[in-house]
Amino acid sequence: FKLTTVEEFEAATARLLETGAKVGADSWQMRVKNQTPHCKFGEQGVCCRICSMGPCRITPKAPRGICGCDVHGIVGRNFLRFTAGGAATHSDHGREICITLGHAKEGGDYQVKDPEKLIRIAKEWGVETEGKDIYDLAHEMSDLAQEEYGKIRGVSRWLKRAPQHTQDLWHAAGIEPRAIDREVSCALHMTHMGNTSKPEALIRQALRNGLSDGWGGSMCGTEFSDVLFGTPKPIDTEANLGVMNAENVNIVVHGHDPSLSEMICEYADSKEMIDYAKSMGAKGITVSGVCCTSNEVAMRRGIPMAGNFLQQENVVLTGACEAIVVDVQCIFPALGPLSKCFHTKFITTSPICQMPDSDFIEFDAGTAGEKAKQIVKLACENFKNRKPELVHIPDLKHKATVGYSVEAIVKTLDGVTNSQVDETGTTKPLLECITSGVIRGAVAMVGCNNPKVRPDTAHIELMKKLIANDIVIIASGCSAQAAARAGLMDKAAKDLCGAGLKRVCELADIPPVLHMGSCVDISRMLILAAELAKDSGLNISQLPVVGCAPEWMSEKAVSIGNYVVATGLDTYLGVDPYVSGSTEVASLLTEGVRDWVEAAYTVEKDIDKLGDLMIARIEEKRDALGI
Ligand code: NFS
Question: What is the ipTM metric for this complex?
Answer without folding.
Answer: 0.95
